[in-house]
């Protein structure tokens, strides 16, 4: 049996050998020894591609819309020399989205499409002022006739930065141009409490399957509105707008459709009508007013009003034979008031009104009166 000294020497030798192996492996790794993999290709920083590209027909024109970030794939913004290309082609009858693979469609489109317009500088800023590209292609004015349809187009959007690097073009969107319906006529707008009522007539009497879209823009906006107020085309010739701000000036128009989208093919807009709805409508008078003596005060309670623009309540008091005068005010969230100025032994009459947030504010009629008084004797 080996002695303790022999066993100790053996363990020390094994530790030194393991340490040498580790050091050798570390040196080999540091010196790049071993089999190397293939070199990785450099990462290309490109403009971010356009998103949500849509095409629609507005009268004889084609509207191209798209969401643009105007930045690169590394997050850096494009420089002032960047441009947006709207690309366009008239495809062969057999080249249809959904009828061929996207890969083949893209290959043919990139080979044959032409740049319909290149937007840059101030023109690009105007076209993307809302964060979306909006471009009107007036070169597609050949809408055909009722018997012969107009041409079919494919559109795509591509971003080019100031260094000439190009984003992948968006997947081409198709539209078959068709003769648009005539614009609606006789648009009338009437403001009422909480709504603007619109009515109009068809531009082509006798049509029974016509649909309509209603559009609104602020008077200060110059661009043609592209998003209708209605969620889906409506068959009626009336519409009620309830989502507006009092005191703002709006311009309304209506467009006709012969068939439901997609694609969206609309008439030219009707003549606009301008409306400036004003809030001249008072809230309803508060109800359920009650009064009770509580300690050294007369406490008033009432039911809350339901108007969305309610701002406050005004509290009125009078003595017998006198006129009401305001003694207090509470916010719309409050439905009670403590009259701490009432004199003992005096019978008071109370009423409450509701006030909205209009400029100037509208005050409701006063509620029904209630009466109460503090006992003449403080102990009672």
Task: Give the SSE map.
Elements: H1 4-30, E1 51-58, E2 61-67, E3 83-89, H2 102-112, E4 114-120, H3 121-127, E5 132-137, E6 152-160, E7 173-176, E8 185-192, E9 195-201, E10 211-218, E11 238-241, E12 250-257, E13 264-266, E14 273-275, E15 290-294, E16 297-301, E17 310-319, E18 325-331, E19 336-339, E20 348-356, E21 370-372
Parallel strand pairs: 1-13
Antiparallel strand pairs: 1-2, 2-5, 3-4, 3-6, 6-7, 8-9, 9-11, 10-12, 12-14, 15-16, 16-19, 17-18, 17-20, 20-21
Would you mind describing this structure in some detail?
With 380 residues, this protein is mainly beta. It folds into 3 domains: 51-176, Immunoglobulin-like (Sandwich); 185-275, Immunoglobulin-like; 290-372, Sandwich (Immunoglobulin-like). The protein is 12% helix and 35% strand. The chain has 3 helices and 21 strands. The protein has helices at 4-30, 102-112, 121-127, and strands at 51-58, 61-67, 83-89, 114-120, 132-137, 152-160, 173-176, 185-192, 195-201, 211-218, 238-241, 250-257, 264-266, 273-275, 290-294, 297-301, 310-319, 325-331, 336-339, 348-356, 370-372. It has a 4-stranded mixed sheet, with no helix packed on it. It has a 4-stranded antiparallel sheet with strand order 4-3-6-7. A 4-stranded antiparallel sheet has the order 18-17-20-21, with no helix packed on it. A hairpin with a 2-residue loop joins strand 15 and strand 16. The longest helix has 27 residues, at 4-30. The chain starts with a helix and ends in an 8-residue tail after the last strand.
């Amino acid at each position: 049996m080996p002695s303790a000294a022999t066993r100790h020497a053996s363990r020390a030798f094994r530790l030194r050998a393991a340490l040498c192996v580790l050091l050798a492996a570390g040196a080999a790794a540091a010196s790049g020894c071993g089999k190397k993999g293939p070199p990785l290709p450099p990462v290309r920083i490109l403009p971010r591609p356009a998103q949500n590209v849509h095409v629609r027909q507005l009268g004889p024109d084609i509207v191209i819309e798209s969401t643009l970030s105007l930045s690169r794939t590394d997050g850096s913004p494009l420089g002032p020399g960047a441009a947006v290309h709207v690309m366009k082609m008239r495809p062969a009858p057999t080249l249809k989205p959904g009828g061929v693979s996207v890969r083949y469609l893209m290959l043919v489109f990139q080979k044959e499409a032409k740049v319909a317009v290149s937007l840059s500088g101030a023109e690009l800023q105007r076209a993307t002022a809302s964060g979306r590209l909006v471009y009107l292609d007036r070169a597609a004015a050949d809408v055909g006739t009722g018997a012969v349809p107009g041409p079919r187009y494919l559109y795509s959007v591509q971003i080019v930065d100031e260094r000439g690097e190009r984003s992948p073009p968006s997947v081409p969107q198709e539209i078959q141009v068709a003769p648009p319906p005539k614009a609606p006529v006789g648009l009338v707008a009437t403001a009422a409490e909480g709504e603007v009522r619109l009515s109009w007539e068809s531009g082509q009497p006798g049509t029974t399957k016509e649909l309509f879209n209603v559009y609104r823009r602020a008077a200060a906006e110059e661009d043609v509105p592209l998003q209708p107020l209605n969620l889906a085309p409506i068959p009626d010739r009336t519409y009620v707008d309830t989502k507006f701000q009092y005191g703002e000036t709006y311009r309304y128009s209506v467009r006709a459709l012969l068939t439901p989208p997609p694609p969206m093919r609309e008439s030219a807009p009707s003549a606009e009508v301008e409306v400036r709805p004003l809030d001249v409508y008072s809230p309803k008078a508060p109800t359920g007013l009650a009064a009770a003596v509580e300690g050294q005060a007369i406490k008033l309670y009432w039911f809350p009003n339901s108007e969305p623009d309610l701002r406050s309540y005004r509290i009125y008091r009078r003595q017998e034979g006198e006129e009401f005068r305001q003694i207090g005010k509470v916010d719309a969230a409050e439905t009670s008031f403590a009259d701490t100025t009432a004199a003992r032994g005096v019978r008071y009459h109370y009423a409450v009104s509701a006030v909205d947030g209009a400029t100037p504010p509208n005050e409701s009629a006063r509620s029904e009166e209630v009466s109460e008084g503090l006992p003449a004797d403080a102990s009672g």
